[in-house]
Design a protein that fits this description.
This protein has 270 residues and is an alpha+beta fold. The protein contains six helices and 16 strands. The model has no long low-confidence stretch (mean pLDDT 95). Bound molecules: flavin-adenine dinucleotide (FAD).
Length: 270
């Protein structure tokens, strides 16, 4: 039961969030189920927001349905992926969403068309409305099961090679968004490239440092704190501002209070 008198935040896998060392003065609702909840209607899948994204990708490939393979290996839930319009290799989940069942902060259920979620690069309006994705309907294409399964294995291998092992080197994925082009003719530019140019790979704060294979990923060791991650992210953004006059926009969200956080933050998740 959602009660506005008791502040809460909703998380899925928590894979894109750094939680304050000081803890949170609110309830945390975790909407994640180990058993996938997926219904088939021809090429459409209705899936709960609590289902793990990678499990959905595996399920779609095994069913010979094309349109989600690029999400293979992305940690977290379908709900988290919808909220942040998760994507890779030039594709994003918002492209296949036909409708979503939402629960508002007032506890009202609502079915809305995918277009009303205002998907853009790593963003949907859910980040502002804080509506909860209870389930979504995804419209996929028929594909070849064997081809999709082979492609999935290749993507998982690539991720394994390029990304940190989450068990030994915890991270929250790419820290900053790629940079929007200044004209339609150009492509988005990798934040990692700008970070690399500034030499951030040598930066560290306490137990937090930059992943050696990717300048846009912060990893931490056992002694690393959330504050270390925050401080390092500030140093990274400052380095790019100084050298390129570009303000990087964070993809990772912070939860709760941090030393030296901006004064105008009123949300628990920011
Ligand atoms: C190693 C690694 C690799 C990654 N690679 C990619 C990548 O290739 N592409 C990419 O896009 N992302 C990537 N990510 C980031 C992250 O995994 C995704 O953004 C993922 O979709 C977040 O899902 P989550 O359930 O963990 O969300 P959380 O971290 O739990 O939450 C993130 C946001 O989503 C909201 N949210 C969660 N569940 C719901 C729900 N049911 N309804 C409404 N809002 C909800 C939360 O309130 C919060 O604002 C990566 C992360 C890691 C650690």
């Amino acid at each position: 039961m959602i009660n506005q008198n008791h502040p809460f935040i909703l998380i899925g896998g928590g894979s894109n969030i750094v939680v304050s060392d000081k803890g949170l003065n609110c309830y945390v609702i975790r909407y994640l189920t180990d058993i996938p909840i997926i219904e088939h209607h021809g090429n459409e899948l209705i899936v709960s927001g609590s289902t793990k994204l990678d499990t959905l990708a595996e399920h779609a490939a095994e069913a010979g349905l094309e349109g989600l393979n690029y999400t293979s290996g992305i940690p977290g839930t379908v709900g988290g992926a919808i909220a942040g319009n998760a994507g890779a290799f030039g594709q994003q989940i918002g492209d296949v969403v036909t409708s979503a069942d939402l629960i508002s902060l007032h506890g009202k259920n609502n079915t809305v068309p995918g277009s009303s979620l205002q998907f853009s690069y790593r963003h949907s309006c859910l980040k502002e409305t804080n509506d909860i994705v209870s389930s979504v309907c995804l419209n996929l294409k028929s594909g070849h099961k064997k081809t999709l399964q082979k492609e999935r294995i290749d993507i998982l291998k690539l991720r394994h090679e390029k990304h940190p092992d989450l068990f030994t080197q915890p991270c929250a994925g790419s820290f900053f968004r790629n940079i929007e082009p200044s004209s339609k003719a150009e492509k988005r530019q990798a934040a990692g490239w700008f970070l690399e140019q500034t030499g951030v790979k040598t930066f560290a704060c306490g137990g937090a440092k930059i992943f050696e294979k990717h300048a846009n990923i912060i990893i931490k060791n056992d002694n690393g704190t959330a504050q270390n991650v925050f401080d390092l992210s500030q140093k990274m953004a400052q380095a790019v501002r100084n050298q390129f006059n570009i303000d990087l926009i964070r993809e990772v969200r912070f939860a709760g209070p941090f030393d030296n956080m901006p004064p105008n933050i009123h949300n628990i998740l920011w």
